[in-house]
Amino acid sequence: MAVAAADQAVEDALIPLSALQHHLFCPRQCALIHVEGLWAEDAATAEGRILHERADSGQRETRPGVRIARSLAIRSLTLGVAGRADVVEFHGRPPRPFPVEYKRGKPKSHRADEVQLCAQAICLEDMCGVDVPEGALFYGVTRRRLPVTFDAELRALTTRVAEEARANIAALRTPPPVRTPACARCSLFDLCQPDRLEKSPKVARWLAAQLAD
């Protein structure tokens, strides 16, 4: 019974796999979504949702030498995450998983998309017991796959981001806003209010000035 209770506690502590991408992009955005339960859709998120519709269908497909699973439920107790992979191709015999994540837009300067894909690979390794050395990101603008190798550096980054995201969500902690150029492209901009909340309120600034005198 104690083991079963411990197992259930581990399951309950799993965070959404998507939280890793949100956290690396912006820890506050991650907390607004996964701690406070806030969400707002804009043209970009709507476009992304449409792009995912076929992948989210759960439809399976078989081609010569490859079996394709869509919207596959995955998890990793190692990372403490659970979610769904857009597309997983199983190549060869014995079958080796090859995750493919669909993204709107084009390749980005930060590594949030790569971290999300690497987390999927680690989930598949935990579940299937085989190495998953590479996968691909498919971007809506370029309409082509970008190969991603899950090397030691990316795996270390993914593990660190997972630990940080889990800690923030478990603590129910929402970091204060830090205004960056990326804020203007965030669908949660109006809910986050970085321009207003990043600066100390007038009363707090007045008290700070009095204490400094």
Write a structural description:
The chain is of the alpha/beta class. The protein has a single domain, classed as Lambda Exonuclease, Chain A (Alpha-Beta Complex), CATH 3.90.320.10. Helices cover 43% and strands 22% of the residues. It is built from 9 helices and 7 strands; from the N terminus they run αβαααββββαββαααα. The chain has helices spanning 2-12, 18-25, 27-34, 43-52, 112-128, 152-170, 189-192, 194-197, 202-212; strands spanning 15-16, 61-63, 66-76, 81-91, 96-103, 134-139, 144-149. Strands 1, 2, 3, 4, 5, 6 and 7 form a 7-stranded mixed β-sheet that branches. Strand 2 and strand 3 form a beta hairpin. Helix 2 (18-25) packs across helix 3 (27-34) and helix 5 (112-128) crosses helix 6. The radius of gyration is 20 Å and the shape is globular. The N and C termini lie far apart (62 Å). The mean pLDDT is 83.
